[in-house]
Amino acid sequence: MDDLRGRVALVTGGTRGIGEAIAGALVAAGAGVVLTGRDAAAAQAAATRVAARGAAGGTGAIGVAADVRDPASLRAAVTVATERFGRLDALVANAGIGRMAPIQEMSDDDWRAVIDTNLTGVFHSVRAALDALIASGGTVVTIGSLAGAHAFAGGAAYNASKFGLVGLSEALMHDLRDLGVRVATVMPGSVATAFSRSSGASDWKLQPEDVAEAVLYVLRNPSRALPSRIELRPARRRPLGVA
């Protein structure tokens, strides 16, 4: 379905896993996409893969280097989107990292890296894209996690970042709705990517494409409607004995 034809999205952390799946689904629906990664070559390679999924006559994908911890690089990515495609309709704030350790073993550097990427990085991303999104009446979709509602041992930094992201997303929704910008968060459970904490069989997990469909669901809603929070779980429980 090419029902997003003519719309333009910026996807942070789009070089693999969930981010690449989201970028691919957007391009397949006819949208133009700028996807970011910290490595320029990886971003360009992902954009080439994503562009191959494009709808006939669609606008394709561009990969650019940007680090969500660096506001200037995000502003540059927004400029690419608006100069190449003429507008920006959606920001998908997906970039994230996970460094898991009990609090007594976690280093200061690991704590800062997780919080700066998963939480402050979303703040930077929204600030960079905000003027363009106000101009288009656009949408922000943050990619959270069920770890933002359910803590687990060894996840002090990750849980803190995702709990914070839920609060940030809700606050942004209230701040921006009267400016014509919708804000939603998608909170997936276990997803079959290299990022996943669990080991063993993975056929029970969500796939990155499932998260992408949730993002497209948000974007396809009429502008008067806002599914502001989507909790997305595997349909089956984790099998016994799987870590």
Structure explained in plain terms:
- It is a single chain.
- The chain contains six helices and seven strands; from the N terminus they run E-H-E-H-E-H-E-H-E-H-E-H-E.
- With 243 residues, it is an alpha/beta fold.
- It has a single domain, classed as NAD(P)-binding Rossmann-like Domain (Rossmann fold, 3-Layer(aba) Sandwich).
- A seven-stranded parallel beta sheet has the order 3-2-1-4-5-6-7, sandwiched between helices.
- Helix 4 links the parallel strand 4 and strand 5.
- Helix 1 packs across helix 6, helix 3 runs parallel beside helix 4 and helix 4 runs parallel beside helix 5.
- The relative contact order is 0.14.
Question: What is shown here, in short?
Answer:
This protein is of the alpha/beta class and 243 residues long. The chain is built from 6 helices and 7 strands.
**Which stretches are low in confidence, meaning pLDDT under 50 for 5 or more residues running?**
none
Helix content: 40-55%
Note the total helix count. Answer: 6
SSE topology string: EHEHEHEHEHEHE
What's the overall geometry? globular
Strand order across the largest sheet: 3-2-1-4-5-6-7
What are the key terms here?
Rossmann fold; single chain
Can you lay out the helices and strands and say which pair or pack?
Blueprint: E1 8-11, H1 17-28, E2 32-37, H2 40-51, E3 61-65, H3 71-85, E4 90-93, H4 108-136, E5 139-143, H5 156-176, E6 182-188, H6 208-220, E7 229-232
Parallel strand pairs: 1-2, 1-4, 2-3, 4-5, 5-6, 6-7
Helix pairs in contact: 1-2, 1-6, 3-4, 4-5
